[in-house]
Write a structure and sequence with these properties.
Blueprint lengths: L8 E2 L3 E2 L4 H11 L1 H14 L11 H14 L7 H9 L3 H30 L10 H30 L7 H12 L1
Helix pairs in contact: 1-2, 1-4, 1-6, 2-3, 3-5, 4-5, 5-6
This protein binds ligand 218.
Ligand 218 binds next to helix 5 and helix 6.
Length: about 180
C-alpha cells in the first residue's frame, strides 16, 4: 500500500503498480490462500487511504476487492518454488517466480481490463474502441507491473532465497536431512 504512494501513473489508465512486488513475494512465501487474503486486504486499504477511482459501485467492486484479491494467485507456485530452492535448483526457482508473478499479475489485470471495457470506454483516446483502449492500457500497465515485480523478486531471490521459504518449512527440511 505504501509503495502505491510513489507516483508511477500517466493519466487514469496507465500505471505501474509497485505494491504487486511485496504481494508477489508474500504469496510465493506463504501460498495462494494467504496471498489472496493479503491481496483482498490491499484492495480494501484503498478505501480508508482515499486511493479509489470511483465510476460506479460495480466498477469499484471489480477493481478493488476483486482485482486485488486475484493478485495473490502468485502463490500457486509457492510449493514448487520452495521445493526447487531447497534442492538448490535456483534456475527452476527463477522460472517459478516468473510463473507466479504472471499468474497473479494477469489474473488481476484481467479484471481491470473487464472494468475498462465496460466502465472506462468514455476515456478512450486516439479514436480507439473501449475494447481496444482497455486492452492496450491494461495490457501495458499489467506487463510493466509484472516486469518490475519479476525483476525485484529475482534480485531479492538471488541475495536471500530463504525469504521465499517460511522458517517452519526450512526447519522441517533441515531436520529431515540431519537424520
Ligand atoms: C481503460 C481503463 N482505464 C482505467 C482503469 C482503472 N484502473 C486500471 C488499473 C488499475 C486500477 C486500480 C487502481 O490503480 C484501476 C482503477 C481501467 N480499469 N481501465
Amino acid at each position: 500500500m505504501a509503495l502505491g504512494f510513489i507516483p508511477t501513473s500517466i493519466g487514469a489508465s496507465f500505471s505501474v503498480s509497485l505494491g504487486l512486488i511485496p504481494l508477489t513475494i508474500f504469496s510465493l512465501r506463504r501460498g495462494w490462500k494467504a496471498g489472496i487474503a493479503a491481496g483482498f486486504l490491499w484492495g480494501l486499504l484503498h478505501f480508508p487511504t482515499g486511493q479509489v477511482y470511483y465510476l460506479s459501485v460495480i466498477q469499484v467492486l471489480i477493481e478493488y476487492p476483486i482485482a486485488f484479491t486475484f493478485g495473490g494467485f502468485a502463490g500457486l507456485y509457492a510449493t514448487k518454488l520452495q521445493k526447487a530452492t531447497l534442492a538448490g535448483d535456483y534456475k527452476k526457482g527463477y522460472g517459478y517466480i516468473v510463473a507466479g508473478a504472471f499468474s497473479g499479475g494477469l489474473a488481476r489485470y484481467f479484471w481491470h481490463f473487464v472494468a475498462g471495457v465496460v466502465f472506462w470506454g468514455s476515456y478512450a483516446m486516439w479514436g480507439f474502441s473501449p475494447f481496444l483502449y482497455s486492452l492496450v492500457m491494461n495490457g501495458l500497465s499489467g506487463l510493466a507491473t509484472i516486469f518490475v515485480a519479476i525483476v525485484v523478486s529475482v534480485l531479492i531471490y538471488q541475495k536471500m532465497p530463504e525469504l521465499f521459504i517460511p522458517k517452519e518449512i526450512r526447519r522441517a527440511y533441515q531436520l529431515q536431512n540431519s537424520k
